[in-house]
Specification:
By secondary structure, the protein is mainly β. It is built from 1 helix and 6 strands.
């Protein structure tokens, strides 16, 4: 079972950057990019923590990553890259991001999903590597500028 999961994960990740580059469903022009380094651990209830860098208008801004999941088992080191849309003001970046489409979260290891916060900022996660976990649901991923 684990071998099938990892094979599927590899297939999704290898296709994600290509799909993202030609995605007609993007919500508009790219306003910023992000790089995230996080960890996730769980036995039943899980926790995700880490940090990242937002590149916005020629400057770098560091942020923290936090999240909680339920029905979760495993441990993962996560490195994610993504593009940010609808970021008109830096302060709009802060917030809790949930899946804008479908049931994906950053820590599930699936690239190519849109995450959206309450300010309308959307993040397209193009690449997630180094981790395999099984997760049932999530309350969201909180991103906060330092």
């Amino acid at each position: 079972m684990r071998r099938h999961f990892l094979a599927l994960l590899g297939l999704v990740l290898s296709a994600a950057p290509v799909a993202a580059a030609t995605d007609p469903g993007a919500p508009g022009p790219v306003d910023a990019t992000i790089l995230i380094h996080a960890h996730a651990a769980a036995v039943g209830v899980g926790y995700t923590w880490g940090d990242g860098v937002l590149r916005y208008r020629g400057r770098s801004y560091h942020f923290t990553v936090k999240g909680v999941t339920v029905a979760d088992v495993g441990y993962a080191n996560i490195t994610g890259r993504g593009r940010v849309y609808n970021l008109h003001h830096l302060h709009d970046f802060d917030g809790t991001y949930g899946a804008a489409t479908g049931e994906a979260t950053l820590v599930n290891g699936i690239g190519g999903q849109f995450l959206k916060n309450g300010n309308g900022v959307e993040i397209r996660v193009d690449e997630v590597t180094r981790g395999a976990r099984l997760s049932g649901s999530a309350d969201g991923i909180e991103l906060r500028l330092r």
